[in-house]
């Protein structure tokens, strides 16, 4: 496979699927003979691929071989000889392997995990477990250490070569850093901290992955555009244009549209008297409309600088029973509370997992 791929890279006969592409259109690009094209398309129809090519899928072409690659498990080799086409597909065994991986932060959690050969997906899985306790974009430091006990899925080919493929499940995580020591233990579909408290809370720590905070909650702030002192009843998170913005918690959209200095604004009403507002958006999330129910973490818009804004950022507000409060000080209830019986069972599992994480 390495030699085949090297040939394609040298000859540059590679096509990456774009929006609205179909197999029939793609096969016209290298000028595949009509009778061969029809035979190849029959294979596509047989495997239900005619309408299932996805953006980012890859086609590789030569005179005697066409490769269509969706992912490592779904790669199709069309061998061409004169007017005949033969299809071959690689065969793999699936192997599940439980193991502990650990590392130290040099630049970021992302770069640290990838330096150990892990995939971005694991970074997201790990960060999502502890996201209510630590913001890995602003609160991780060089020298911090991380531990993860998980089940990995590997592919084994007929030559007994093992290829990392995916992550099945995380059982426990630990992050030991400058701002504290954090644990996450999987139990009954949720993650819990060392004391058996549910890690998931009613609200996320922040609604986006931001670079820094440019303006804090204040009752007397000098406005950079209006040149006057007035209250700034929210937080300004600076982030690149187009950064996804997520709902802080479950609720429903009570306003979506353009509103004065806010520019493009989404307002979400949450249980227990809370409302959150997301301003200066460049655009709204897919299907975001007034009355729509949203889940915690669901994308409701993208960072922009509409309205009164000097640059791309999110203006974020939190209200409780109609009164603005500082978003950095809100504390909401844990998502799930264990019974005394469940807590005892959890503690047994926790103690066994701690030994593995060391």
Automatic annotation (TrEMBL):
InterPro entries named among the record's database cross-references: Cell_wall_metabolism_enzyme, Csd3_N2, Dup_hybrid_motif, M23ase_b-sheet_dom
Pfam families, per the entry: Csd3_N2 (PF19425), Peptidase_M23 (PF01551)
Record's keyword terms, sorted: Hydrolase, Metal-binding, Metalloprotease, Protease, Zinc
BP GO terms, sorted: proteolysis
GO molecular function: metal ion binding; metalloendopeptidase activity
Main location: other
Record has Metal-binding as a keyword: yes
Segments forming domain Csd3-like second N-terminal: 98-217
Keyword rRNA-binding: no
Domain of life where this protein originates: Bacteria
Subcellular location: Cell envelope
One annotated Gene Ontology cellular component of this protein: cell envelope
Originating organism: candidate division WOR-3 bacterium
UniProt-recorded name of the protein: M23 family metallopeptidase
Residue ranges of every copy of the M23ase beta-sheet core domain listed in the record: 231-327
Cofactor(s) this protein cannot do without: Zn(2+)
PANTHER family for this protein: CELL DIVISION PROTEIN YTFB (PTHR21666:SF288), PEPTIDASE-RELATED (PTHR21666)
């Amino acid at each position: 496979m390495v030699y085949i791929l090297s040939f394609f890279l040298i000859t540059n006969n590679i096509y990456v699927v774009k929006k609205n592409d179909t197999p029939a259109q793609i096969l016209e690009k290298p000028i595949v003979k009509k009778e061969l094209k029809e035979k190849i398309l029959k294979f596509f129809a047989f495997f239900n691929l005619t309408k299932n090519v996805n953006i980012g899928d890859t086609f590789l072409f030569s005179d005697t071989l066409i490769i269509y690659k969706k992912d490592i498990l779904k790669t199709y080799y069309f061998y061409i000889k004169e007017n005949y086409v033969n299809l071959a597909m690689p065969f793999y065994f699936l192997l599940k392997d439980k193991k502990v991986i650990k590392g130290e932060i040099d630049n970021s959690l992302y770069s640290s995990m990838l330096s150990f050969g892990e995939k971005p997906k694991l970074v997201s899985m790990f960060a999502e477990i502890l996201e209510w306790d630590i913001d890995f974009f602003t609160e991780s430091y060089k020298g911090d250490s991380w531990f993860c006990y998980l089940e990995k899925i590997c592919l084994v080919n007929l030559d007994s070569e093992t290829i990392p493929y995916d992550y099945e499940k995380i059982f426990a995580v630990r992050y030991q850093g400058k701002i504290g020591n954090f644990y996450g233990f999987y139990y009954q579909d949720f993650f819990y901290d060392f004391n058996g408290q549910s890690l998931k809370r009613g609200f996320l720590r922040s609604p986006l992955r931001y670079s820094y905070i440019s303006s804090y909650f204040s009752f007397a702030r000098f406005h950079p555009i209006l040149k006057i002192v007035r209250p700034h009843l929210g937080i300004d998170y600076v982030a690149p244009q187009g950064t996804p913005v997520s709902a802080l918690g479950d609720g429903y959209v009570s306003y979506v549209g353009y509103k004065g200095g806010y520019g493009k604004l989404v307002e979400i009403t949450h249980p227990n008297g809370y409302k959150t507002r997301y301003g200066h958006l460049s655009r709204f999330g897919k299907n975001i409309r007034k009355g729509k129910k949203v889940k915690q973490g669901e994308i409701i818009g993208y960072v922009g600088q509409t309205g009164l804004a000097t640059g791309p950022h999110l203006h974020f507000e939190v209200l409780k029973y109609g009164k603005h409060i500082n978003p950095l000080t809100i504390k909401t209830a844990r998502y799930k509370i264990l019974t005394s019986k469940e807590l005892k069972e959890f503690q047994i599992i926790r103690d066994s997992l701690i030994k593995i994480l060391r």
